[in-house]
Putative lysine-specific demethylase ELF6 (Glycine soja), 303 residues
Amino acid sequence: MTGKSSITQRTARHGSRKPRKFDLADLEWTNTIPECPTYHPSEHEFEHPLVYLQKIAPEASEYVFSFNNGTPATDFWLPYIASKNNFSRLPQSLLRLVDREIPGITDPMLYIGMLFSMFAWHVEDHYLYSINYHHSGANKTWYGVPGYAASQFEKTVLQHVYSNKILTKHGDDGAFKFLAQKTTMFPPNVMLQHDVAVYKAVQKPGEFIITFPRAYHAGFSHGFNCGEAVNFANGDWFQLRAAASRRYAHLRRMPLIPYEELLSKEAMQVYKSSRVRSSKKKPEDTASYQSYYTAFLASYAIL
């Protein structure tokens, strides 16, 4: 008798919550998210993937990720897995100079997904590029915000995603730490509501997703699947890496990659290659040289 009375009292005090009927119309906003473009590199272009990436980067970076399909793993991905010189350590990738193994960054990691398993909103460590290959299984849906809109994304998360309780207790820096932990997930319509650029893509088996530096992204699996991903970096990454270093220092996080050491090693490689170059073209005329030179000046100013 007493038990029934207490249950009745609690129900009356808190009120009953009526179940809300799900309606597909509630998801119509997903159709308003523009899709990123699909790229179809030729067999020859896939022989030099980072060169091809630089070719499409001016357009593809505006959409967060390039979406390449129709390339069998046996023709592209498996040779890198079987070799110690994996994708992140290609001659054009700066991560080839990192002298230790960092899972997921210098060495690929395998990801097993199931229905509705998700990866939370995040940017890659040190604002690196990333490449994700879908080996088999159900599709994945990706959402992403271009690097140029990263600051808008962060501002929107602080103002409209995290509660005042979190901000009051931990401050803005604390909120950024939560975001860096890769545990924050929310629907992309939050970005639409606050005029932040956001795009989507559905990744199928045999297709690649490439994310560009400082591009926030998240997504989920449609069912059981298997994918593989690793980071890499081009010469133009140096300037972004300096910004990432400042963010790490601000959040009191230990960097995973020795930036100054990497910059020095690459500069030595550029100097050596310029001395043995048979071409009449001067190293000062190359885009990579300009990236290193600018990065050196920026590092010198900081030091």
User: Anything to note?
Assistant: The first strand starts at residue 38 and ends at 39. The chain has ten helices and ten strands.
